[in-house]
Amino acid sequence: MVIETEETDNVREDQKMLNHHVHHRQTVWMHFANFFLGVWLIAAPLTFIYNSEPMVINDFICGFLICLFTLLSINPFRLWAPWAAAIVGLWLNVAPLIFWAPEAVSYNNDTIIGILVIAFAIVAPGVPGVKLYEEPGPDVPPGWSVNPSSWIQRIPIIFLGWIGFFASRYLAAYQLGYINTAWDPFFGEGTENVLNSDVSKAWPVSDAGLGAFSYMLDAMMGYLGGENRWRTMPWAVIFFGILIIPLGAISITLIILQPLAVGSWCSICLFTAIVMLIMIPCSFDEVFASIQFLRKSKKEGKSVWRIFWLGGTTSEKSIEYIRHDLTSFRKTVKEIFSDFSVPWNLILSSLIGVWLMFSPFVFGHTNALADSDHFVGALIITFSVIAMGEIIRPIRFINIASGLWIMLSPFLLAGEIIIYNELISGFLLIILSFRKGKIINNYGSFNKYIV
Predict the structure, then answer these.
(1) What is the pLDDT of residues 238-270, one digit of tens each?
(2) Burial of 178 by CB count in 10 Å (0-12 exposed, 13-18 middle, 19+ buried)?
């Protein structure tokens, strides 16, 4: 019996090795494509006008490194080489910000080449060595009725990531001096006031440029891995969640504070905040699926550290995953947002948040109570929208604390008191926060936490 098991293991390892070689032969052309991108980068300072010596040196060095690492990547067992090329690609996206590239051509050239290098190094061909470690197993997490890693589930995150990237890139172009004005459709010079504020200038680099870099990472991470990456690449899912959830929440908070810290609203900044806000509930389910898988692996005595980095499998059976017939726009949208529902109480909670944000303009008060309404109203909208993600529905209870604060704020904050507005808004928010709403899908062991 032991001999048969060893023979089976050897056959499995041989098959993995064969799959690795076949996959490498099919994708090796992407490394040659990166080689020519490196040559392009070396030639760029000689072809275009670069008024920054650091940028010239940067492009020469990065171009040489890309050529070197891509040539090393031709060996199928130098798994570190594609990663090294991808790291150079990441650097190319931040170098123009660090060196405050004085011309748009160097910024555009470096960011575009950087994105393509990352795509050809680790995204399009897949994570290096994935065929050597990937274990057979289910695509759908055990006990779940939806696959959080399916491509159709990742579509909104990838799409919104690129939308946020281009919007932030436009703001970065103004901060870096490539354009003279920043358009704002609603708040006049509000966008320019925010971008020129002391808050923005407190950063050593363009904060809008950092935002563009962050959105680019969100989109590129969305492409990584297959439809079972919740178990084959837990590290990618967890890092993906960190990029979107806590960092996204920080970004939204900073934008919320604009009228308080700067005294102006920025329309495009608000747009990017909305984009990030929609991305957050769409990413929780996949993160929870990976956490659930790691917890079960630990209970089975497996090395969580190894599985976190190299993935694993499970012997548990999954619920048969029935795909919708995506022959109509409505069915396609339903599949994309299958883990996202919109209970009426959360819609009303969001509207209360909107009302609180605008009530100071309606009642004409500009004191500390008005600042409180601006900030808390935006937080209510944020948590109400995030709670529309079914697996994160309990986060709506945070609105109870917001409701209590709204009711107490007229008595705690000095100045004019709009007491009935605060009491009614806070009371309604608390009542609405108790209803869970309909949960359509099953989420395995996490079902008991969705209260």
Answers:
(1) 999 999 988 888 888 888 888 788 888 899 999
(2) middle
